[in-house]
Every structure is written in C-alpha cells, then in structure tokens.
Amino acid sequence: MKTHNATIRRVGFALSAALFASPIALTAGGCQLFNEKLTAEPGPAYPEDAPMGGVLNIQVFRDVTTLRFTNTTTEDIPESTMWLNKRFSAPLPSVPSGETSELDLRSFVDEFGDTYKAGGFFAQREPAPVVLAQIEVPDGNGNPLLYGLVVVQNKFD
Looking only at Cα atoms, what is the longest distance across the chain? Predict the structure, then answer.
C-alpha cells in the first residue's frame, strides 16, 4: 500500500509542477495568442521645418482601429502623407472633393519602425489617442507643406 501512495504523490507532484511551469514557459518562449504587428519598415521622419498651410475644415473620426474623414473642401487632396501626433505617418491616396477616406491605424509607422498603438479587441498594447492629424502635401516647388485637420472623435472600443 505504501508504494501506491508514493506513486500517487509523484504523479500529483508532476502534474502540479507541469501546470505551474506551462504559463511561465509560454511567456518566456515569446508565444503570443494574437500576433499584433508591433514593428514595420521605418517610415519618414516628421518634417519639423515644414511650414504650416493652415487648418483645413476637415473633421477626423477615429473608430477603434480606423481613421475616417471626408474631404469637405472644394479642392482635391493630392496623393500625400498623413501624419498623426507629429510622429506616425502613412501614405494617403488622393481624395477628391466630397469623397470619404478610411485609413487603418495599424498602417501608421514612425521613423524607427514602431507601429501606431491602434488598440482593438485583441490588442496587446493600450491604444494611443489621436491628438493631432496633419496632411503633408508638396507645394509648387516640391517642398513639404503641412495642413492641419480637426480631430473630433477618439473611440477606442
């Protein structure tokens, strides 16, 4: 009878050790339940010296991981770069007057290759608010010119 109790204790100890060690092993091994893209190819640096062309009467809405705006100006927005918070950029296709554009916040990247903390249901990081949205367009000489947009909504969930 002693050997039976000893065997049960050994099996119980082995099971409890395995249950305790498995979360540690998964964490230490870098296993991720959902693979959020945290880095990408580095983007351009923010054009600190670019002059401001003013603020356009365009309202920007953030809906969890999507940035949406309608070109409410009378001019078409040419193919350009959109900047968020003076750090993250993404290419912006041309947006004709009256058209709506939607951009995935996960496509914004900084000059070091860090992606924007977009959030979402399976996100591994806390979402970052959109505080400043700008469009960088070339002026008549090809130099960058920044236009501000009006951020009116930051919906995280």
Answer: 93
Please indicate, yes or no, if residue 42 is contained in any of the structural domains: no
Which domain, by its residues, includes 132? 52-155
- Domain-located, residue 73: yes
Of 62, 76, 79, which is closest to residue 120 (Cα–Cα)? 62
Residue type, 33: L
**CA distances from residue 9 to 5, 12, 20, 22 in whole angstroms, order as listed:** 6, 5, 16, 20
Instruction: Tell me which H or E stretch contains 65.
Output: none
Model confidence at 27, pLDDT cuts 50, 70, 90, reads very low
- The whole model's pTM is what? 0.72
Rounded to whole angstroms, the Cα distance separating 92 from 82 reads 6
